[in-house]
Hints:
- This protein has twelve helices and eleven strands.
- The chain has helices at 42-57, 77-89, 104-116, 130-136, 174-191, 193-207, 211-231, 246-256, 263-281, 286-299, 310-318, 346-356, and strands at residues 2-8, 11-18, 35-40, 62-67, 97-102, 122-127, 141-146, 149-156, 161-165, 330-332, 340-342.
- Helix 5 packs across helix 7, helix 5 (174-191) runs parallel beside helix 9 (263-281) and helix 5 packs antiparallel against helix 10 (286-299).
- The protein is globular.
- It has two domains: 2-168, Rossmann fold; 174-358, Dehydroquinate synthase-like, alpha domain (Up-down Bundle).
- The mean pLDDT is 96.
- The chain starts with a strand and ends in a 5-residue tail after the last helix.
- Helix content is 46%, strand content 18%.
Amino acid sequence: xxxxxxxxxxxxxxxxxxxxxxxxxxxxxxxxxxxxxxxxxxxxxxxxxxxxxxxxxxxxxxxxxxxxxxxxxxxxxxxxxxxxxxxxxxxxxxxxxxxxxxxxxxxxxxxxxxxxxxxxxxxxxxxxxxxxxxxxxxxxxxxxxxxxxxxxxxxxxxxxxxxxxxxxxxxxxxxxxxxxxxxxxxxxxxxxxxxxxxxxxxxxxxxxxxxxxxxxxxxxxxxxxxxxxxxxxxxxxxxxxxxxxxxxxxxxxxxxxxxxxxxxxxxxxxxxxxxxxxxxxxxxxxxxxxxxxxxxxxxxxxxxxxxxxxxxxxxxxxxxxxxxxxxxxxxxxxxxxxxxxxxxxxxxxxxxxxxxxxxxx
Length: 361
Ligand code: NAD
Ligand code: GLY
């Protein structure tokens, strides 16, 4: 088993990475827990609900299963409230523990619910998509979407542990694997040129879910994310680089309507756009833009963005948590393995959108 430690002012906890972790969830429930709420969705419940429940049952605690509708379109207030309804109806107290069993949507909503239910109860992340295993379950960002902007309502709230069962990736559709790989390669691009190169060299093994390659990619991603979050839990500076490609990507997601493109697909395409912008204003080599485009295509994500119209692109990108005083801030690279946050002239943005948007004849 690989273990990565996350240390933040808001809480320190282990990330355990191994096949079969799902069958050992009882080991992660704090001894003083009074009850367990297993929050999941019907897709994940059908595959892994019974196994997770069987493991949790060994604690001898009452278990309440809460199934939320599946999908990004349900990451909203109405669905969040279903968690509170169940917790209150079942009279779970403030020593109850919430367990998020699912992808990033379930993890983000369960974490947010845990952060505000009775002013805060403990929760465990059990991420079942590659994207959630390498990114969303780590670092304590929780949120729901608003029709006007992605992840706009949420909190920073750390889990008590992250339990990554690498076996569960076997049932994940190929498109979801590609989306998760977008977040994996992101870490190389912003923080670790050697890891970027390793991803280029191992992309087919990763897409085929070759066990050693996947285990290494998950561990390295978690290590890199833990390093950043450990230095800047609440995104007062450094942590913003983890949003590479997200300013463009979030505009795609909210501009097309949540769920049309997967989050990871939008981030993958957004990284190509960020690479183009980095070349335009930050000296990023054109040969490296091509490497980014080729690796994003090789993991199976789109490299051309949808045509939302320039004005709409700009107004969508303004609704971003990195925007301050009416200015959009982009994560840009001077070279592979380094990143920083900058504002850019509108003219440069216009040129990049012209080059990266798929126009219909
Ligand atoms: P998701 O949660 O919608 O899961 C994708 C699909 O896979 C769903 O239909 C789900 O039911 C299904 N699924 C999950 N596990 C499965 C399995 N093992 N086998 C088969 N199907 C399975 O999407 P996601 O890509 O995991 O997460 C995207 C969300 O994460 C977005 O809302 C994004 O904003 C958020 N996110 C948050 C952070 C953060 O730091 N909190 C970081 C990145 C992304
Ligand atoms: N996914 C970006 C972050 O956690 O900060």
